[in-house]
Amino acid sequence: MPIQRLSGIIMSQRAYREHDLLVKILTKQAGPVMFLARGAKRPRAKLAGAVQPLCHGQYLGSIHSHGLSYLTAVDHYQMYRHIADDLLANAYATYLLALVDVAFDDRQVLGGWYDQVKAALELMEKGRDPQIIVNVMEIRLLGRFGLAPVWDRCVICGRSDLAMAFSEEFGGMLCANHWSQDPRCLHLRQKTAAYLALLARIDLRRVDAIDVDSWTKADLRQLIDTIYDDEAGLHLKSKRYIQQMHEWDRRLKLNPRKN
Ligand SMILES: [Zn+2]
Description:
By secondary structure, the chain is α+β, with helices and mostly antiparallel strands. The protein is built from seven helices and nine strands.
């Protein structure tokens, strides 16, 4: 295969042999691709800086459907500097890239998803709330795991003006008239239900900030985590880390003097 110019976001890297790196890049042209970057581990290698996670730019490489693909050079690149320096944004960005990695096969072209991932990272880079941005992606990516919950109305009667609960069994919302259909449904505050319907149809390229209060954020987190755990069966280490960060934060608020 000839060498191609690729727009990409570095997802991860790991050492390979003495001087080489294996670098996973989310490319616009070919989806997630694992590249061998020869010599990139050498301290003065030109590629070394450009293949760190959270770098993005224009890379040159050749993609092979069998065997290794090769990263040969970088044209220009930047790092998402704020994300790299901010503990929470970094954790969410790392998780988002890990989630995309499992949601798509290697060399599966992402189409519009690539722009949504890029828009998500750019909003985080601007300092916007990383949880809500990643929640939007999580809600939308459920479709990649064969789940497409109905968020904006009752799945049985279509009403949207009553109190809502989420039913895993029915794959969406149940209005108060239909809660009896699923005794295990998860009751939601009205505000949370409204936000779910809103977030599910947001195009991240077209928003600047999404302001959500901390109660609603906690509810959204809990519901989305439950769906990913129970139904998608996904248990990513990077998600676990975020959950621990929120747990520490909660304890600090409960016991301010102890800490
Ligand atoms: Zn109903």
